[in-house]
Specification:
There is one protein chain. The protein is an alpha+beta fold. Helix content is 49%, strand content 14%. The protein has a 5-stranded mixed β-sheet. Strand 4 and strand 5 form a beta hairpin. The longest helix has 23 residues.
Length: 280
Amino acid sequence: MTERTPDREHLTDLLAQQWEAIAALVADLDENAWRRPSPLPGWTIFDVVAHVIGTESWLLGRTPPPHDPLRPKTDVRTLPHVRNEVAVLNEIWVDRLRPLSGKRLLALFDEVTEQRRAALVAKDDEAWAEPTVSPVGQVPYGRFMRVRLFDCWMHELDLADGIGRTVPEGGDRAETAFAELTLGLGRAVVKGAKAPEGAQVTLDLTGPVTRQVHVAVVDGRGVLLDTIEGTPTTTIRLDSGLFARLRGGRITVDEHLGEIAIDGDTDLGARLVRNLAFTI
């Protein structure tokens, strides 16, 4: 079945809301708080916001600022958390923005995201449907923007966790971002958990994004299903915030074993929760 491209006006509005939520979360930070570690290896709170600026600036057709000759030059390719060319570009943007103060970074974030919002509003339906290269392959531009919403939503959680604050983790933005979290679960079930042919796995997310996700192994592939017949081979029950952080590689299962319930084939379930991560 072909996935429908997300609605242009709705997704543009969600992205604008997401950027506003990030700005509000960090608006009152002092310079020390900006430099606290985030859940992402090698990155501070400042770096997470700088990364969002870098990606949205790239989508505006911009290149990273020049390197400050007074700062030591970092070979970003040697950093342990940089594993591919996309990560190299991300790291260059972050590194080039680090000399800014947190206050100046936030002003730049507001400027860039407002320009991006205007650029999205100016797109017509034809441009929204145009195939474009994205982190998930060549997809319609609108689908790429759903990936951007997911990325920015995850980074809001990173910022909140790093600062030590609680943010709403449900609602329309989260529901839309979750489409990206669940799409690749078939691979995690088959490649990561080594589920056998015919196995049926149910992930029961208890909220604030409440849903059941069903995956069946058919002809060696993990297939997402709307419903399954009979009793699942294994059922894994956890809240959606924990699921998102495990899928994003932000935390490890061992830190949260008491928050995950597994019924049925517990060995299969345990293998799956240890192999949920698909991005870091």
